[in-house]
Specification:
This protein is mostly beta strands. It has no helices and eleven strands. The chain is globular and about 40 Å long.
Amino acid sequence: QVRLVESGGGLVQPGGSLRLSCAASGFTFSSSLMRWYRQAPGKERELVASIASGGGTITLADSVKGRFTISRDNAQNTVYLQMDSLKPEDTAMYYCSVRPTATLSRSWGKGTLVTVSS
């Protein structure tokens, strides 16, 4: 079974930094496009970042471009989201996600909560 376990969330001050991790198993991680989503209170789910299987091609939402960076370590089956210059509007539940194969539904972690507040 696919397992995605996020960690690294917490409470930070505006302008601070946080690094989220997603430990993956149960599928061929090295061949899979990995994504980070977030959902803030009262708002729709938003795609934050994606990273290709080899790590060379990344996509970032305009709202986080220049502040967040996505990376992966295929040897450790882990994807990261480095978040710098955090703003209160970054407050959300952050989810790691993958669609393991074309015939399976998208899989989601349980999420890790990021709260940016003074």
